[in-house]
Amino acid sequence: MKAFSTILVLVLGVMLLYASSDFPALGDPASPANDHPVAKHYIQEVENDTHVPNLVTAVLADYRGYDTMFETVVVFVAGIGILAVIGMPGRRRRDEEHCVKVGQFGEDSDLIILQTCRLVVPVLQLFALYVIAHGHHSPGGGFQGGVLFGASYILLALSGGLKESLARLSQSQSFRFAAFGIVVYAGWGLLCMMLGGEFLDYAVLDGLLPGDAAMARSHSMLIVEIGVGFTVTTVLFVIYANLATRGRLEGGL
Amino acid sequence: MEWEWILGKSNYWAAIILMMIGLQAMISKNNLIKKLIGMSIFQSSIILFYVSAGAKRDSGIPIIHHGPGHGDDHGKEAAHAVAEHATEHAGEAAHHAGEVAHKAVEAAKHAVETADYSNPLPHVLMLTAIVVGVATLGLALAMVQRVHAAYGSIEEDEVLAAIAAETAPPEAPEPKAPPTGSSPEGTPAAS
Q: Fewest beta carbons within 10 Å, which of A33, A34, B38, B185?
């Protein structure tokens, strides 16, 4: 089996390496990916269309909004799947029981680690909010900020015990927030439909939001990114909490 | 083979070699966690491939900026020339020319050179792919934990043997034990 797979992989690798001689050179401005009209359109027209300088955010949340919405749904479904695979039945009641009071910051943890994390967690959360809110003008957005925010809860769990994190964000709350993020995203798209546009066609919202149609698209991107941030934050924390404790949500790392 | 040619293809070679390492791990490793590590390496190679396909020589990050010394100097100079010319005249004419100058600056602002910015599309695709990859990896790890809870092992051959022992009819004695093809993975136990 091992010999067979090695031969297979080697043959495939040599074939791909041979084929790579037909690929465009690295950084070639005339390569098909860079020369395609879609890429040119994004670079030249995005700022006129949406007033958002960060092309990645604009393409992510507006031009490819449909794609991003379902990527968010995939993240949400992965969270539900983890609950279905290793979650414990009837855990919800116990989940409430284990909500110790906030502030019993892990008695059995090391003092230096505790105090350091106490300093780091608020800064991390603030920075996560900055990354979400400032995604229009600098690298950032809902996915990146959501990952940072989720990491702050994981850091809390690592330093003070999982109970400390669950007291602040229990699993049922997590799933409510994750679903809320999807509802914000899809609801904003439906709002566009109700106002006579197409799904996620933010330009029709210029009556509701300040500014012209391009500014409406810019503001809508922020709202959509906030929805993404909710889902990514909570699902990441759920993934950690369940994997670290085999779904028991107690003890663990 | 020239040096430049090698440099131009090196990104593909790196991606392909990483991809093959991941594929080999996914196929030949017996341990489920090691298979997942292989899957992760494979995924990273795809991400590298996409991002390198979006690279463009002498271009910056795909964020439009209108700082000084960024291609719009010419337009600004023209606008300033118009404005200076305008200040020579008085009253209405100056006001009008000032407006024209302002418009010229605005026009210069909106001129975006395609060559100055790298292609945003691969970045967008990989941005979502990374987060979705983390989520699906988490789901896969949860499944591995489940397998370990059910069969007490994460070695593929041991798990398959346990499944075969479980699904074998109770009246069948030992010799009939190894019909391992029942698993959806389809891979027989490694010899």
A: B185
